[in-house]
Amino acid sequence: MGRRHGIRNSVSFSQKKRNQKHKHKDVWDPAKTRMNYVDTVRESEAFYTYYKKQNVCPESEWDQMIATLKETLPTSFRISGSKMEASAMLDVIEGQFFEELLRAGVDPDAAITPPKQLPWYPDRFAWQLDISRKDIRRSEAYYRLHNFLIAETSSGNISRQEAVSMIPPLVLDVKPYHKVLDMCAAPGSKTAQLIEMLHADHQPGDPPPEGFVVANDMDNTRCYMLVHQLKRLSSPCVVIVNHDASLLPNLQISGQDGNLMPLKFDRILCDVPCTGDGTLRKNPDIWEKWNAANGNNLHGIQYRVARRGLEHLAVGGRMVYSTCSLNPIENEAVLHRILQECEGSVELVDVSTSLPGLVHRPGMTTWIPCSKDLVGYEKYEDVPEQWRTQVRPSMFPPSTEDASKYNLERCIRILPHLQNTGGFFVAVLNKVKALPWEAHSKTRESTDKGELSEKMTEASQEKTSNSPPVKKRRTDEETIEEAANADETQEKSNDTKPPKRNPKKNHLTRGFKEDPFVFFTEDEKLWPVLQATYDLKPELSCTSFLTRCEAGKKKNIYFTTPALRDLIMNNTQRLKIVNTGVKAFVRCDNKAMECCFRLAQEGLKYIESFIGPKRRIKVTKEDLVLLLSCRDASCPPEIEKYSTPTQEALNKLEDRGSFVVEFEGKTASGRPLVTTLVGWKGTCSVRAYVGLDECVHTLRLLGEDVSDFEVNKFKNKAENKAIEEAKNDEEIQQESKQNVTAEDTEKNNVDVKEENDSGNP
Ligand SMILES: C[S@@+](CC[C@H](N)C(=O)[O-])C[C@H]1O[C@@H](n2cnc3c(N)ncnc32)[C@H](O)[C@@H]1O
Q: Which helix H or strand E contains 578, and what residues bound it?
């Protein structure tokens, strides 16, 4: 992931967070402000009245649902990484080490609640702990567990994520060759899961997957949360963009014949902005703010994002619509509106059996739109004038006779009490033919070859001029977008000619500040130097590499896949790209080296198979442990400390500088462990260029004791406090000593003065 640059975002995300914290500190008056969630009143009469009216859960379960909503949420996490890496990690979670973490600090005779595996998540890769995230963070008893979760998260080996939020990516069913769009992606826990699915089958030495993920969010600041979140996965298959998803521009890619064609996605996640009342357990402040108008106000944007998503979806493709809200106005009402407009071109899919063990309720087929004052209406005509901007005709449920047309019961509702989670809503949609308003006869088909692939869209041919029912012009940007759509329609009607490219930056990207994404061309001067230094095989094309500067010294060199490069190169005028690429080489101006770039650990996985024998060595387990256990980068292990074969191999490396360290062995639990990392050969020592958390992870898999790496922040804090207090005491003593001396001096002076004044000789 590249460096960002922008006038609007010159302060880093973490800095902003710190500032925010600081701001709160300044204004916090415990008497006036409720800073603690423990004090938050977890009650809302409006919430109860509204959801009782909606029949959101059977009367018999109501008390249980509300009681669960008032409890804090358990901690859940997924084991991530490729299947091979994840299986090794699973051994750690299921093994003695993890039990020790839970036991630490607890009475040795006390029973501990072991982590629970989430039964519906494949391969036993998702777990839940009966302790809240806050308790883990705040309790000294869990400091080792906290260390573990933090380190493994930052090295990309686990992802802490709410259990229910893992469902949408699962039912999206992403394959490594899919083109995936995540429309509202930040902060990115689901995007991370989508990327992991692309890479799930990756084995060491394999090329990166063909597919890619376009992760979009409208909020520029939140896009950087995405950058941060996705960086730890080191994927060359993701691009982060910054658009209003309801106006996401049409994109183009190169077809097999070399001509440009519209990009249609195989999979789309539409995890729309919502009231989030399913997250009350995690965000209790919502209790206080809850009102019926909030959901009504979001219905419009939720519908527009979903509709735009379907326009970007290939025929035969799948889109998942999800919210963390219980409100039918944000859920079934949006889908009902969409399904009505799509006239059979989109269908709800029944995925109820695809996640065995997941307890859920079916989607609602009827509901009661309400105004903010909680008055419900059976039909739009009953809505008083004053509420007609809030309660819209499209929010009403289908009539009883029509209900069966839409299969809304195929939606999945997760209620908090069903399996001790947050509340959630998921619906899976398949696009079976072109949308009625898609004004061309042939739509791009999903990469998935199915019976649909032969289907032409007869209905759409008949209705080429049909528009979706709501076609009111809203904003300038929308007008621009419609113009862009019209352009594309023209492009498509002439299949033989590549569409024209707009040479100038258009309205969509004007004013957007980011360093450029500059891909290497075949004649890149640096490439022969990199090729010679790292013994790069000719199959590795330099055109997959990019930098973030047009001219001057290149700092980092990033790697992307050819498919992503094609997407970026063909849409620079349309897309507001925030970030892409994984760091492959880092500038390192070392006098002793001819090539001023070293290898970067982040991208090594994808380029190491192209690095020839001149710049790689195999090491034993003992060597690897020695290399990774070094905590002082200024004092790396000397070459003579390594095994004799490793010393010989190191001596054979022609120059100083970075090289690939290969290890092929077994984890402590006997699973195969194949790993590569960036080593650095100095004059008489060798070190690893690997982040601390990744070192700890590998050492842990090898069964090494990593307790030396653990930090007990409570102990440190107490020690620092004691040091501070001792310092203060010393200062006070010093001060009082000085005062005594000063007093004595003053007294002496007075005595002398008095003596002088007395006229004594
Ligand atoms: C529910 S959150 C998404 C959570 C995310 N999918 C995840 O799992 O981490 C909704 C996101 O939508 C973004 N958003 C709101 N309106 C949007 C719009 N019109 N287009 C794109 N993103 C939007 C918000 O900034 C927010 O990050």
A: strand 577-580
For residue 458, the model assigns a pLDDT of 31
Our mutation pick for probing the ligand 1 site, out of 172, 196, 217, counting the most ligand atoms within 8 A of Cβ, is 217
Active-site positions read: 324
Point out the ligand 1 atom lying closest to the alpha carbon of residue 165: 8
Binding site annotation covers 581? no
The three state secondary structure string of 650-715 is HHHCCCCEEEEEEEEEECCCCCEEEEEEEEEECCCEEEECCCHHHHHHHHHHCCCCCHHHCCCHHH
**Cβ-based neighbour number of residue 492 at 10 Å:** 19
Distance CA 534, CA 678 (A): 12
Q: Is the pLDDT of residue 140 over 90?
A: no
d(C-alpha 56, C-alpha 109), whole Å: 43
Q: What are phi and psi of 109, to 5 degrees?
A: -90, -10
644 half-sphere exposure, CB direction, 13 A CA radius: 0
Kindly give the distance from the C-alpha atom of residue 2 to the centroid of ligand 1, in angstroms, as a whole number. Answer: 22
pLDDT score of 750 more than 70 = no
Largest CA distance in the chain: 126
Ligand 1 proximity of 582 Cβ (cutoff 6 Å): no
Three-point CA angle 475, 480, 485, nearest 5°:
120
* CA distance linking residue 272 with residue 297, whole number of Å: 13
Tell me: is residue 744 an annotated ligand-binding position.
no
* pLDDT at site 551: 83
Query: What predicted TM-score, i.e. pTM, was given to this entire model?
Result: 0.83
Task: Decide the pairing of beta strands 556-559 and 424-431.
Answer: unpaired
Selection from 175, 103, 101 nearest residue 144 by Cα:
101
- Give dist(CA 277, CA 623) in Å, integer: 52
Burial readout 332-355 (b: 16 or more C-beta within 10 A, e: otherwise): bbbbbbbbebbeebbbbbebeeeb
Cβ neighbours for 711, distance < 8 A, ≥ 6 positions apart = 143, 147
Ligand 1 pocket residue status of 703, Cβ below 6 Å: no
SS (H, E, C) 532-556: HHHCECCCCCHHHEEECCCCCCCCE
CA of 239 to the centre of ligand 1 (A): 16
271 Cα nearest atom in ligand 1: 6
Question: What are the structure tokens assigned to 11, written together?
Answer: 């302060």
**Residue entry with tokens 């290149």:** 554
The reply to whether ipTM tops 0.90 is yes
Task: Give the pLDDT mean for 689-697.
Answer: 93
Q: What whole-number distance in Å separates Cα of residue 117 and Cα of residue 174?
A: 22
3-state secondary structure of 373: coil
